[in-house]
Write a structure and sequence with these properties.
Length: about 160
C-alpha cells in the first residue's frame, strides 16, 4: 500500500468516527429535550386535571358526582383514575377498551407520594405515562377520596 492510500484510509476512518460520534451526541441531546418537553406537558395536564380552571367542572367535590376526566378529543391526552387498590375507576374515552398500565414498583412509589414515569406500549403506540397520587380533594377525587391520576402522551 502506498502512503497516499494509507493516509486516505486513515482520514476517511477519522472522518467517519467524528460524524458517527457527532450523530450520537446530537441524537442523545435531542431525545432528552423531547422527553423533557413531554414530561413538562404531562405535569401541566396533571395539574389541570386535578385543579381545573374557569370553564371546567367545579373544584368543590360536593358540587359534582364524578371526577373530571377530559373527554375524547384529537389533542387530548389519555387520562385514567385509579383507586388505592389499583383498580381503574374512570378513564377518558380516547383510551377505549385499553388501560394505562401501572407496574407494581410504580404503584408502591405512587402510594408513597412519589411521581412515577414509565413508558408503555398501549393500543399499538408508545406512551409516556405519569402517575401521581392526588390527596388534595381536587377535581380528580370523588368525595375527597384519594386517587391515583395517570396521564399519558404519545412519544
Amino acid at each position: 500500500m502506498t502512503i497516499r492510500l494509507k493516509l486516505t484510509l486513515l482520514y476517511s476512518l477519522i472522518l467517519t468516527l467524528v460524524v458517527v460520534l457527532f450523530s450520537i451526541v446530537l441524537y442523545t441531546l435531542q431525545n432528552r429535550a423531547a422527553f423533557e418537553i413531554v414530561e413538562r406537558s404531562l405535569a401541566g395536564i396533571h395539574r389541570r386535571t386535578v385543579n381545573p380552571g374557569p370553564g371546567r367542572p367545579p373544584q368543590d367535590a360536593d358540587q359534582r358526582s364524578e371526577p373530571f376526566v377530559p373527554r375524547d378529543n384529537f389533542n387530548q391526552p389519555l387520562v385514567q383514575l385509579r383507586d388505592l387498590e389499583n383498580s381503574i375507576l374512570q378513564k377518558s374515552d380516547s383510551i377505549g377498551d385499553a388501560s394505562l398500565p401501572l407496574s407494581d414498583s410504580g404503584f408502591s412509589s405512587v402510594l408513597q407520594g412519589e411521581t412515577w414515569l414509565e413508558r408503555a406500549f398501549v393500543e399499538e403506540e408508545w406512551f409516556l405515562i405519569r402517575s401521581e397520587l392526588d390527596t388534595t380533594g381536587g377535581a380528580a377525587t370523588v368525595e375527597s377520596a384519594p386517587m391515583i391520576v395517570q396521564v399519558a402522551l404519545p412519544i
